[in-house]
Each structure stands twice: as C-alpha cells, then as structure tokens.
Amino acid sequence: MRAAIVLALAALVPLASAQPAPPATAAVAARMRVAAEQLLAALPEPAREKVARPFDDRDRVDWHYTPRSRNGVALKELDRKGRDAVHALLREALSAAGYRKVVNIIELELVLRELETFGLMRDPERYHLTVYGTPSRTAAWGWRFEGHHLSLNFTLAGDRMVVDTPSFLGANPATVPRGAAAGLRVLAAEEDEARALLALLADAQRRMAVFDTRTYGDIVTTNAAKVDPPQPAGLAAADMTEAQRAQLVKLIDVYARTFEPALAEARMARVREGGIENVRFGWAGSTERGRPHYYRVQGPLFLIEYDASPNDGNHIHTVWRDFTGDFGRDLLRLHYARAGGTVHRH
Question: Residue 103: its pLDDT value, please?
Fold first, then answer.
C-alpha cells in the first residue's frame, strides 16, 4: 500500500522556458538546496552514506514521533561541523520562534531524564536527519528531521517549490513541573490561543464546538502515511462572529508561523483556498486546565490536531496534515503541470 502512495518524482525534467512566476517558496527552496549541499559536504563519507536515501524510498512516507530506531544519521554520530550544518538547514525551514520550539522539544529529553524512573533512556542526540534524493535545482528531492515528539518533512520541486507537511511537534511535559526548566511551556500558544477561542464562544456555540466529553488518547490520525478528512465536527467559522473568526485565524497562524515566513504564508494560503468559512473548530474532553483535552481545526484541504490526553493533560501532541499535499503528492504534480514541466515515474 505504501509503495503505491510514494511519488517517484526524482527524474522531473527542467521546467519549460515559458512558465508562470515561481511561488513564494521558490527562494526558500533554493536556500534549502544550498544548505543541504553544504551539509552533505560537511559530513564524512560514512555519515554521508547513512543520511542519503533514494527519493522514492518508502521510508520517506514512513514517519514517526515516538522513541524508536530510525534511518538517516543521528546527531550523536556527527561532529561539531556536521551538527552545525544540520541546524543551519533547520534555520532555513523554521521561523526564529519555530526553531526555538524545536530546540526546546529536543531539550525536553533532558527534563525527562530527571523526571522519569528510567530517564536515562531519553537522549537529545537521537534525532535523525535523512536526505531523500539529491539536492537539485530542477528535480524533486526531500529531507526529514525526526526524533521523539518531532517529525519535520520537506519535499522540494527543485528550486521552485517547498511542501512542508506533514509536520508533528509534541511536548512532554507540556509544563515542566520542577527543576532548572520549571515552568517552561514549549507549546504554550497552541493551548492558550485555542482556549481563548473557546472562551469567546456563546453557550450555544460552545455546545456545538465541544463534540465529545472524552479525548482519544492521541491525535486521531496518528502517523498515517496518508489521511482522509475526518467526519466534520465542531463549530463552523461561518457560524462565528467576526471576532471569533479572527481568533480562529490567530490559532491557525500559531501553527503556520512555526515555519519561515514564505512557508507560513503558503500554509495560510491553503487554509484560505478552502474558504475560512468552511473551517471548523472542535473540542473534546475537559475544558478545565490541567485535565485531558483535545481539539482539531479542520478545513476542506487541511487538518490541525492537538491532543493533551496523557499525564492529566500535561503531554501534548500536535500535527498539521494536508489532505492532498502531504509529502508533495498532488501539490507537486499540479505545480509542474501549471509550469509546463513533466512528471516522470520510475
């Protein structure tokens, strides 16, 4: 099944000379290519062999957010030069705030070392980078940075376009209870802006928004390679006031602005493409702080899930999925069709 899902786009031909203006993410694509080339050049040959996989490798869509073995090269296997190159690539993809989130998520492994009975199993150096295909000006390639509570996936159409979904960020603990990092809330805005929207709703609206009294134990879509739209649930933006819709957009923007500005705007453009009025906000579980809770923001083209079920709501999972664009599926095909290029399959 997964083999049928993978897009074998590694042999994309150069774009025709008469073509529309490149999307805003083109400049990001070019910067990512340069950063990836510099990264590969910085790695010794054994690490370079581990980091590289074919673009059409099924591993590209086999993503995870739990502690486990992974392909690619781990931070612990790299010297200072190699680690700096990995972080330089991350900075090309993320906003300053997003980069801090990622670094803090990694450093929460050190917090778990202190808090858990078997905390020595936690390792902030078990985060892996994988490059799929060869960084190219014209052909498709991609890369992933992944470890516990983190999976960032990028697919590129040469120097012309970047697709950045699916993306997963988690935090355990959501609020650090004690120690040197006491009070740290890595994903604070993801919770607070949703609660701010819930607080703006009138009683009748809240009854529509809160669609279940229980959570699901995790994000519903888990780490599926491809997701279809869940059954719509919650309150539609069309039934919100102007102030409530503005807060809904602010919440969505929290997730988008984890990424660098052009990528963030591309996400918001996908939201608007499906129509803001068609976006729904749904809540499940307790509405009290410190209790298990869940919400989703769903439009015709995208889904945001947030789950804080474990540890009495002090363990967060979040994900952004694009129903047709994850891993560059239909978005890349559409882009090359519009630009006059041809997609070749193996």
Answer: 98
Secondary structure in 3-state letters for 304-316: EEEEECHHHHCCE
Q: What does 228-278 look like in DSSP terms, one character per residue?
A: PPPPP-SEEGGGS-HHHHHHHHHHHHHHHTTB-HHHHHHHHHHHHHT-GGG
Question: What pLDDT does 330 receive?
Answer: 83
Which tokens is 12 given?
């994309």
Count other C-beta atoms under 10 Å from residue 162's C-beta: 29
DSSP 165-213: -SEEEEESSSS--SSTTTT--TTHHHHHHHHHHHHHS-HHHHHHHEEES
Question: Is the separation of the CB atoms in 215 and 292 below 8 Å?
Answer: yes
**Assigned token pair, 314:** 């002090």
**pLDDT tens digits, one per residue of 305-326:** 999 999 999 999 999 999 999 9
Mean of all residue pLDDT scores within the chain: 91
Q: Is the dihedral of CA 224, 230, 235, 238 positive or negative?
A: positive
Measuring CA to CA, how many Å separate 139 from each of 8, 153, 160, 163, 339? 11, 17, 10, 14, 14
CB 315 within 8 A of CB 172: yes
Residue among 142, 138, 135, 146 at smallest CA distance from 56: 142
Residues of the chain whose pLDDT is less than 70? 1-22, 119-120, 335-336, 339-346
| Nearest-angstrom CA–CA distance, 95 and 72 | 24
> What is the pTM for the complete model shown?
0.91
Calpha distance 136→65 (Å, rounded): 28
For helices 96-115 and 80-93, angle between their N-to-C axes, nearest 10 degrees: 130
